Amino acid sequence: MASGAPRTTSSSAGYAKGQMRREQIVEAAVAAYADLGYHGASLRKIAKRVGISHAGLIYYFPTREALLAAVLERRDVEDAARGGLPQSPGLGVLRHLLDVAAHNQDHPAIVELYARLAAEAITPGHPAHGYFTRHYRQVRGYAAASFAALAEAGQLRDGVDPETAAAALIALMDGLQVQWLTDPGEVDLVGPLRLFLQQVLLVPVDQPQ
Fold it and tell me: Which residue intervals define the domain HTH tetR-type in the entry (predicted)?
């Protein structure tokens, strides 16, 4: 007699199991980089945390760089969820970017991972090149749409191009991170970003929308 419940095929069950294992590896990698730092968290140590062999780990992530990119993708999702990334462009998105910078000050390990991998991934063949291409396009897009919305509302200074302002903001964020990693006691990740925004906006960045 046929059951009314849908059957789970072996292929779909295998896919779900594989996705679960990938998530376990990424979670272990996030913890390992936080605990051991960029150089201390080897693939073998991460595999040990998951309870699988080194060969088992590289089945899912053939290179360390591919795993690092997955860690950063997870970080992006968490950043968006934690601060509640606004659906509509405007001041809320710019405030969200300030909140991300403030959060990063308490998490130097992930900032170091990002900065190191970003420099390495400029080559098109690099395993993380695709991640950074998508990441920068997405963040620039959020910022540019927000500057454009503010311009329409008469809240952006005359002569400020939204696309240029967005690229400058993201460049400032990344450049500050490198300076901060080099000399954390002397560099603030948030203050210069706030100053830049106030120089191009006609309203306080903290003004409610």
Answer: 19-79
Q: Can you list the domains of the chain with their CATH numbers?
A: 11-62 (1.10.10.60), 64-209 (1.10.357.10)
Q: Which amino acid belongs to residue 196? A: F
d(CA 180, CA 187): 5
- Give CA–CA dist 102/78, Å, rounded: 14
Residues paired with residue 201 on neighbouring β-strands, in sequence order? 156
Q: Where are the alpha helices (DSSP H) in the chain?
A: 10-40, 43-50, 54-60, 64-83, 91-104, 108-120, 129-152, 162-182, 191-200
Is residue 19 within 8 A of residue 70, CB to CB? The reply is no
Q: How many CA atoms lie within 13 A of 73 on its CB side?
A: 16
Q: Are 60 and 77 a contacting pair, CB within 8 Å?
A: no
Q: pLDDT tens digits for 70-81?
A: 999 998 988 888
* pLDDT level of residue 7 (50, 70, 90 thresholds): low
Whether the predicted pLDDT of 196 surpasses 80:
yes
Distance in angstroms (rounded) separating the CA atoms of residues 118 and 129: 8
Contact 159, 153 (CB under 8 A): no
Q: Provide the token pair at 91.
A: 């001041």
